[in-house]
Every structure is written in structure tokens, then in C-alpha cells.
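User: I'm writing a short methods note and want a consistent example. For DUF3459 domain-containing protein, I'll paste the sequence; you return only the C-alpha cells, no commentary, since I'll be parsing the reply automatically.
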Amino acid sequence: MQLSKIYILIALLTCTFLQSVAGDITLHKKDATIWLPSQRITGTISGFAAKQLTVHHNKKQFNIDVVNNAFSFTIDAVHENKIWVEDAASGSKSTVLNLTLGYNQLPVVKPVPEVKDNTVALTSVVLNNPDKKALKYFWSAAKGNPQKVVITKANKSTASVQVPAAKGVYYFNLLVVAGADSAIYKTYVTRDKQGVKAFNIDNDAPKWIDDAIIYQITPAYFVKKAGFDAITAKLAEIKALGVNTIYLQPVTKSEKGGQAYDVIDYLTIDERLGNAQQLKKLVNSAKALNLRVLLDLVPNHTSISHPYAIDCIKNGTDSHYFKFYQHTNDGAPYSSFYHTDSNKFVYYFWNGLVNLDYQNPEVQQWMIEICKYWLREFDIDGYRFDAVWGINSRTPKFAHRLRTELKIIKPDVLLLAEDKATDPSVFAKGFDAAYDWTADTAWISQWTWQTHHDNKKSLTIFNLADSTKRAAKLNKAIFHETVLDKPVLRFLENNDLPRFIGSHTLAQTKMAAGLLFAMPGIPMLFNGQEIGRINHPYSGRTIFYADKTIQQLDSVGMIAYYKRLIDLRKQYPALSQSRTNPVQVTEANNVVALHRFTDKQHFIVLLNLSGAANTATINMQNVQMADKPLLATDVLTNTNYKLNKTKSVYELSVPMEGYAVKWLLLTN
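Assistant:
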């Protein structure tokens, strides 16, 4: 018994001695969820000398060299990874590093249609095959095509199809199989009277946006504390306005809730709004009403309380996520707006919302996987990308990659940039639509009709003191400070602006709305705008109530007015995506006129920027038309005005009430 105790004591002393002489192996990385399989890991040794160490990666192991007490190696991660480094001679061993790959690596394949006469070659272009597996291809025609098609060589990487005579859009699915994994990608061709045209993934915007009327929803305040179900319950009323697209502000988990741009988890629904089943019910209910659904995503920044940012603060440069965030001034456009917090995070205007670093390929992959998730899981119809002007300025090439990876999944997904439509590069980068902001880089988000920034008031061209200056500035805004030939998001209100009607009279509001819905681009209503809500979007006040219809809350008659505007816009093509020219008005310096026209339809839109009655006279010789109309009908009021046509005179004179807007259809 005594002898056994001595042996135990000797063993303990030996172990203690070995531990005292064994040195340290330190890995300069902490446990993390990773977003690229290739991971470089560095480390150092101390307390012993070694020329080589052994790396253990799950059940694999390999040797690495040590130079000046430092080492590095790269692993190709699988889903779950346990990594440690040891020195057999000294018994030194690092702690175990746990890395989890955050997504399932699927082959990324771009289906490319190429048209020759009536034949379409469907070609698969492999963008990424992460495991280098043999790929199998299965082409099929989507359900609902205008006419049945037969695909030749449907199980090959390149197939072909004869497009039938029936006009319309023909969609094709490509199922790509890699071992036990698979992914579906899509493309399309269009047959019209000119022939067959292939979808151009780099340039083609979704055709449906030509007729889009968007309704922006703040889920947290739509009906306060009622979430997704309250929105679902009022979809029919929203649809009745004439809206065909709803846009939900962020539904992802946020720190403080509310408008929810302080994201702390991009892949989880904020439980204050509901759960995944409730969101799916909302999306499916919207689609049953032929309403498309856009989600608001926040790619520029996270909350400082995001777990990745917290890990940075805790572990510094040893945090896997340190390089996920911007820590230095890169001198990019808008860098004059940078601020740096006490933890060396760079941010723009919003303290606590810290910039992500898209120079890091892993950040790009992370955000792309996030976008793919919501697109595939909830079958949404597009994204509004919040503050993407920041990413466009810091990493301008990212948008093209994002576009490609989303449009191979759903070709007609809308990519709406919160960036300047007046900047041509926004569209060149890959976005389908952008905001009606001026080109002034000193004021990033200046709405074209806005004159001054004010946190409480909507200060616009329409409430300038001098009505003559209003007209001059509005003419400049329409024909020199906005874009008329691109998909521009147009609005009177949104989640960042003070309520328009709160700073303008009802008559001014109706006049401005009349102009909004007569402009080319994509008109948008902000929830509550249709009932004349005046509380600032930042106030947190509830917008609607569960026990009252939206109509019951309209005390100013705006619902009927917006319905009228939307119905007429849908009825007359010249009021939506058509050409726009200025029209000179004589003897009325406070009236603005524009000519909206297609080859077969012509409108003169008139606005009296003054509260006093006036008469607008137009020399019709200056209006470019093949035919000379004799009648102008205000379709808003069904009032007719005869044109004065003689040998020496050809003019239109229209009496204008104060703050009147008229949509004059010109006919013979």
C-alpha cells in the first residue's frame, strides 16, 4: 500500500515537472462561425523551441514549419471543425479552436440563354464548384409558360429549345446536382412582336417594375405590438388602394426594435414581430392578392451589439470578426462623414451602427448567403438595400457579384438601392432602381423636392414662401436634378422624412401627390400617408389599429384621392413609363407644365404652385405632337377644355384653382 502511494506521488511530480517545462502554443483566432471554407490561422510558441509542429484538423493531421517562434497554416473547413496544434517533443498543446461553417456550400451555376432566330441555347456557366464534384444538369420549362416547349438535351450542361409562336415570357429551370447537394437556378427569354430576346443578367431590370406601385410598411408600428398578423389582416385594404407591391422594413432581429436598422442577427426574425410561420403567411397572403413583397436589408452596418462586434471588442485582433468591420479611413467617397468610436469602429452618422468591411471576401460571402436565405426561404420579390450608398462608395465592385448570385436564383428579383438615381454608376454597378435624390454629395439623401434638412418639418419646394420661386425650383428639380429615363423611386414620405402633410396644407399635399403619380418611375406610399398621419416616422407612434379599418381612420379624404391617382396611372400608359418634356406656360410664372407622352397618347400635366387662382396658357405649337388635338380633358375631374385654333393662334388656356393639379388628356 505504501509503495503504491509512492508510485502515485512520483507520477504526479513527473506530470507537474513536464507541465512546467512545456511551453505555450497560442492560436491567434477565437471560436467563430466562418463564412468561407478557406481559413488562414496564425500562432506563436513560447517557452520552448521547435522547428515543426503538428496541426490536427478533426481526424486529419499535418506538419507545419515554425519560423522565429511563429507559424501559420490554412485549412479547408467542413461544416464543423476542431483544430489544435501540438509539439510531441515537449508535450505542448494549444487550446482547441472550434470553427463552424455558416452555410451549406452549393455549386453556383449561371444559366445563360443565347438566341439565334427562334432557337435558344441554354448554357450552364459554373461560377463556383466548392467541392470540385462532378455536376449533373437537368433543364426544365417552368410551369405557366405561354405555351408548352420541348427541351433538347435536357440532361446536358448545354440544352436547346425552340421557342413557340405564343408571345410572352418563357422561364427555364436548371437543377444542378453535386453528390447529395443540389440547387435550382433560373433564366428566361421573351417573345414579342420583334422576335425572341434573351434575359441579360447584367442589365435587364424586372419588367414588372414598369407598373409597380409600392407601399412601405413599418412592421413594428403598423399596428403597435401586433406584428406580422396585423399586416396580413389589412392586406386587402392595402390592395384596394391600387398598390401592387409591399415593402417591409427590416424584419431581422434588432437591438432596440422599432425601425430595426440596428441588426444583431441577419438570419433570425425579430420575435417582437412574430415568427417564420407568420411571416410566410404574410408573404403567401400577399401573393394570393397579387401583391409582390420586398424586404429591407441592412448590409452596410450592424449594431455595435451584434455578436460579431461584441467579439471584436472582447478579443481585438484575435477575433475572427475583427476584419469584418471597418477600422480605418479608406479615403473613399463620403469618407468625410466618417466617425470613429472608442473601440476604433468606423461609422457614418449613426453612433452604434458600425460599418462592415466589404474588402474582406468573407463579409461579401456572408451577406450573399444572407440574401440567398431570405430569397429562397420566403420567395420574396426583391430587396431594398439600406444605406448601400456606403458600400457602393467603399467597395463598388461588390454589387455586381451580389446581382449575379441573386438573379441566377430569381431573374426578376428587384434590387432597389438606397442610393442616388442621379448617379449613373449606381445602375452600372448592378442595381435595378434607386432613390430620387439629388447628385449633391455634400447631402447624401437630399430628396429632389426637398430644400432644407429639418428633423421635424418637411421643407420642400411646395412650401417656399414665394410661389414664383416654387415654380422655378420645381422646373429645375424635374428637368435638371432628377432622372427621367431610369427606374427612380419617387415619394412624398418615407421612413426617414417628416410627414409631408404635417408641413403642407391638404391642397398642397394633393397637388404634390398629383405630380408624384404623373412622373415616370416607381411611386411609393408610406404607411399612414393615405390617411394623413402627421407623426414623424421616428416617433414610434402606432399608425393603424386592429379594431378599425384603414378607411375609418381617414379624416382628410386622401384614400379616395390616392385610389383615383393610381387607377388613372394604370389606365393611361402616358402617365407612367413614358417620355417627359417641359412645357412653357405664358403669363403664369407660378404654374409648372410637363408633357407626358407615348407615340399614341399625350398628356399635359399642370400644377399651380400658388394658393391663388390663375390661368395657364400654352402655345401648342411648341408641344411636339404628330396630330393637332382640339380637346383637353382633365381626367381627374372629367372637365373638358377646348383648344383655341386659328390661322395665327393655336393655344390651350386652362383656369387653375389655387394649388390645383390637372392631368389633361389631349384628343381630337
